[in-house]
Amino acid sequence: MRLNQFLLIFTPLAGVGILAGALHLPRIFSDSQIEREAILVRPDRLPGLHLGLKGSLAGLLWLRHLNYFGARVLKRSLTQESYLWMCENLEGIIRLEPQFSDPPLFASDVLAFFGERVTEAHRLLLLALTGQSLEWQIYFRLGVIYMKWYGDFVGAAEWWRFATLSPSSPLWLPNLVHLTLLRFSGEVEEGMLEVIAERPLTPELREEWERIRTFLRALKEWNSDLRLFRTKRGRDPEELSELIEAGIWKEIPLDPWGGAVRLSPDKKKIIGSDRIPVFFKERPFLPIPAELRSGDILKELRLSFPRLG
Amino acid sequence: MGPLLTVARYTFLEGVRARFFLGMFFMSILLILLGSLTASIPYGKTDEVMARIGWGAVFLLGFLLSTFFAVQHLTRERDQRVLHLLLAKPISRMGYALGKFLGLFFLTAIGIFATGLVLYLSLLYFGQDPHGPREWFIPSLVITLKCGVLLGVAMFASVLFGAFLSLLITVTVYLAGAGGEDLLRLALRSDSLWFKVLAYTLRYAVPQFPWVDLEGWVIFKKSYSLETYLYALGYLGGYLILFLSFYLVAFTLRELKD
Questions:
Q1: Spatial CB neighbours of A263, under 8 Å, sequence gap ≥ 6
Q2: Left, alpha or beta for B16 (phi > 0: left; psi -120 to 50: alpha)?
Q3: Interface pTM (ipTM) of the complex?
Q4: What is the DSSP letter of A101?
Q5: What's the pTM value of the predicted model, to 2 decimals?
Q6: Do B235 and A162 touch (CB under 8 A)?
Q7: Interface of B with A in 21-50 (CB under 8 A)
């Protein structure tokens, strides 16, 4: 085969292949969301390594800046100028890897969790976020952050389920996981109620378990009221007040935690309130060092962490 | 066809003699060690991490080994005037160049498929999920094509430049291909017009490897239509032919100095 024959036959084919790929592949690539498989904070993955070159680089830079921040806070030498400098750099990191814009890593209850050293606190937190720590308390605390900051109770329970994998985790932790999932998802796996009933529970969890059993019984009645509404009116209600208007309820009932029940987003079932269970409010998790107990560090500096729009 | 295949065969044997496969063998050992280390981490999805890191290592090392060998081999042939003697034989320049490429391409392909097989067996042994042969074949094929593209770049550069510059150019094309999408994202957030122009130019001038991350699709169990696979293979095949064409033209037209 001569060169011009080769070029005449194969170069147009190459052009077609490249053009077809360039037209279709970028959309397929962005739709595949493979990079999102490596979400930093999902407990059922080993993230960080999946973020790729830029994500790993962003993670290293983030850690470096957190160490800087932590060291300054510890020495009480964090000035407004140095804080703003750090915030500008962190904005750059967030541009590099947008996932880093979310974690609330500058609130005192996060900084204070791991004890006396803020730099160590952030190092341990990042180890936990990347699934490399064996300390059950870290994953447990992550679950609390999810609960408190994101209102994601099911996510919190998943982090606690992760914590149960640690050999040193307490015996009550799986019970807490299942109770939380029951409480906030309202869905019961077959046989789960009997299993939990047989488990040894701490006194606080025993009270919480009784509340959940009451709640699950009441939930069945409320959802059958919903089905009655559907039969009467031939549609799903837009708001729970419509059940009062239909004469099914006298008032919107409260769940055992004192919050009014709600309609699920798809309007198909009734779910409980988003009140944090008493168990979580009253139980102290870990001691907070005195020096960091005096309110939010950001409030002390009268600054706010700049967030990208 | 006879002389072409003869050149290809001898190029392949040169690679075997140069202990190309020894490099792949050591990489296989590394992959097994990596697999056992990853499997010992108690949390997370072991299989996905092993596969991701493993195939990444196969690609990177396959690219470096094949490119380094190709550049060294070709520039040595030219500088030691061996090429002058070989082209006196009854074979056209085009046939000789194509034979060289085919020999090096098959050398790379066998190395990658073999190392990929070691990774696949590691996944079966150390991993926690079941894996089918598709998880060996598709990544091996795609990585071979990617290395083939870069081999074409390396061989084209070797015709025009010395060994060091050829390697530098090939590595630059690799980096531009691997990081083009990220570069574009950064450029879009930047105010600089020139940065945006550069990012778009690189995106379409150089093959974008993340677009054809078929090994990633296999690892994360994404299922796509045959049409999508054909686009990906056509895209890589197109760039392979393009850079091969550059190499053939350059080799055919370039004057050999005495």
A1: A237, A239, A240, A269, A270, A271
A2: alpha
A3: 0.80
A4: G
A5: 0.54
A6: no
A7: 41-46, 48-49
Whole-angstrom distance, CA of residue B108 vs CA of residue A146: 48
> Residue A26: its chain B contacts at CB < 8 A?
208, 211
- Separation in Å, CA B179 to CA A34, A54, A92, A236, A295: 15, 9, 18, 50, 43
Q: Do A165 and B249 touch (CB under 8 A)?
A: no
Q: Tell me how long chain B is.
A: 258
**Partner-chain contact A45 B208, CB within 8 Å:** no
Cβ B248–A6 below 8 Å, yes or no?
yes
Whether A46 and B44 lie within 8 Å, measured CB to CB: yes
Which one, of B161, B169, B168, B171, lies nearest residue B79 by Cα? B161
Span B32-62, pLDDT tens digits: 777 777 666 544 466 777 787 788 888 888 8
From the number of C-beta atoms within 10 Å of its C-beta (0-12, 13-18, 19+), residue B192 rates as exposed
Residues of B in contact with A37 (CB under 8 A): 48, 220
Q: Taking a C-beta distance cutoff of 8 angstroms, is the pair B94, A1 a contact?
A: yes
Measured in angstroms, the CA of A5 and the nearest CA of chain B are apart by 11
